[in-house]
Amino acid sequence: RALARWLAARADVHRVEPLRAQRVHNKWAGPVTYQGGGGAGGTGTVTLPYAPVQGGTETIALVDTGVHAQSCYLSGAGKITAYVAVAGAGDMQDGALGHGTQMAVSAAGAASGASGEFNGVAPGAKLHVSDIALGADAEIPDDGGVDLNAVLGAAQAAGATVALLAFGSTVDYFLDSGYTTAAVQIDTFAHAQPAVLVVVSAGNDGFLVSPALASIAHAKNALVVGATQNANAAILPHVGAEQRASVQQYTGLFGPGTVSAASSRGPTADGRAKPDVLAPGEFVSTANSANCATSLARASTSIAAAFAAGA
Predict the structure, then answer these.
(1) If we measure between CA atoms, which residue out of 100, 129, 123 comes closest to residue 111?
(2) How far apart are CA 231 and CA 66, in angstroms?
(3) Segments of the chain assigned E as strands
């Protein structure tokens, strides 16, 4: 603390903050994003088929762990307009968990030579990919380790109209405001480029019960997305027989009107109301980056943010 006070007193020091490690945070979720699925206490039902906005005139800037560009959902002509390895960070490939690929597909994936069941919310949109992770574990640089203002600026200059970021560090609400360098960089960009919507995930620390928004979810000028459960029809394949009966009987207690237990709650550490919106992020199936014939079950605000970005 004495060192922090000494640094803070220097005229050439702009800010002092802890160095934190960051982590990365379909058929039914798309319709829920557009239709709402009955709302709180509703039936949790949606109408299929549905006609979403295709997003054909939009480009989504994905800042993540990279993507498997060969995925049948991303390999269509012109789908990825640029794939950039951020200097000192990205390695031009997705990690073993496929986080970036799942984000890309959930937002804008369009099946090529396969069923479109797990297409993204905006299958006509294009993607500008900024890879900021290294290695098989796809570790994200520490908070502030990448200049997000510069990364987003480059994507905007290339035509991006929406930006999607789903990672961040855990904020200690007792020690600081949570307004980290990464959040400042996002706000700096969003303030200078109001035509670009910056979408970020709230974080997956909802089990802490108390407010626990991720670092970038403290950005003031970004749309912060929390997660709800998916439509009831999407929940059933993920639960056992006993739970399935409960879902079918107590429709008002499950579904898109129920906030996911994992979704980080607000407010921010400095008292602002966040997250801003909710989208499906639990009991969600998304594309398997390694096998287009299968899907993967996912539960996170990352997926919720991807659906919101596509919408």
Answers:
(1) 123
(2) 29
(3) 23-24, 59-64, 80-85, 126-131, 162-165, 167-168, 197-201, 223-229, 277-282, 284-287, 295-298
Give the residue ranges of DSSP H helices in the chain: 2-8, 29-35, 99-108, 148-157, 181-192, 232-235, 241-249, 301-310
Backbone angles phi, psi at 228, to 5 degrees: -110, 175
pTM: 0.81
The string over 252-267, giving b where at least 16 C-beta atoms fall within 10 Å of a residue's C-beta and e elsewhere, is eebbbbbbbebbbbbe
Cα→Cα distances 37→247, 302, 304, Å: 14, 20, 15
| One pLDDT digit (tens) per residue for the chain, 311 residues | 788 778 788 888 877 776 666 654 444 445 445 445 544 444 444 444 454 568 889 999 999 989 988 888 898 889 999 999 997 777 788 877 788 988 998 899 888 755 566 788 888 999 999 999 876 666 777 777 899 999 999 999 999 999 999 998 888 888 778 899 999 999 999 999 999 999 999 999 988 878 899 999 999 999 999 998 876 565 556 555 655 565 555 555 666 778 888 899 999 998 999 999 999 888 777 767 666 766 676 778 998 999 999 98
Residue 304 has, within 13 A of its CA and on its CB side, a CA count of 33
**Rounded Cα–Cα distance for residues 169 and 176 (Å):** 13
Tokens matching residue 9? 């007193």
- C-alpha span between 208 and 218 (Å, rounded): 17
Dist. CA 5–CA 194, nearest whole Å: 36
* Strand order across the 80-85 sheet: 80-85, 126-131, 59-64, 162-165, 197-201, 223-229, 277-282
Count CA atoms closer than 13 A to 143's CA, side-chain side.
24
- Which whole-number Å values give the CA distances from 49 to 31, 160, 186, 229, in the listed order? 8, 29, 36, 20
Measure CA of the first residue to CA of the last residue in the chain; give whole Å.
45
